[in-house]
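ESCALATION

Customer reports they have been waiting on this structure for their group meeting. Please prioritize. Original submission:
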Amino acid sequence: MILCLDLGGVVVRVRSTWGSCADAAGLRLPEEFRDRLVGPDLVLAAYQAGEIQETEYYQRLSESLQIPSEDAPRLHAAILNSCYSGWAEYLSELNSRGVRTGCLSNTNEAHWRTMLTHPDYQAVQMLEPRVASFLIGHNKPSLAAYEAFSAAAGPGPILFLDDTPTNLTATLPANWRGCRIDPSQETLDQARHWVQEYWEFLHSS
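Update from on-call: job pushed to the front of the queue and completed.
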């Protein structure tokens, strides 16, 4: 069995509005942009798909939100908000049971650097394989993204946990089962439930 995890909203806490990011970074943001959601941002989506590079992304972000260009990297960095509690220990437990644990994330070069180097993101660093949208040139829910993870992980049944419904209603490969995580709650107990249910299903057949 292979557990494929989304990162933001499953393993990693993320801030959902540009206003909350600005507050965390200590930056001023025009009032009309404070409630704008981070997730649907088309500039961010292009960056996460590898369509534009980091410098261009920051320039376009600053223009889109009408902030100084030097503030854009700090605002973007503040999307990340550490890991949900307990994940590193749970991943160790799963690995000891023979469950492989990897990730498939719509993410970008700047956040990837942080998550792979900062000690707050130990759980992310434990995952293998790690497949990132900007490296493969495809965002979920593109079928190519799921196929890229399958190729990296090798054969076996895959349980996929994600917080975004559209990523789960996509046509997943035949050996995948998708289950939703609610990011507004602690995510670990939800993951334990889905993993145990799928484990029992696999071992009952």
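Sent to customer with the following note: Strands lie at 2-5, 12-14, 80-83, 100-105, 130-132, 158-162, 176-180.
Escalation resolved.
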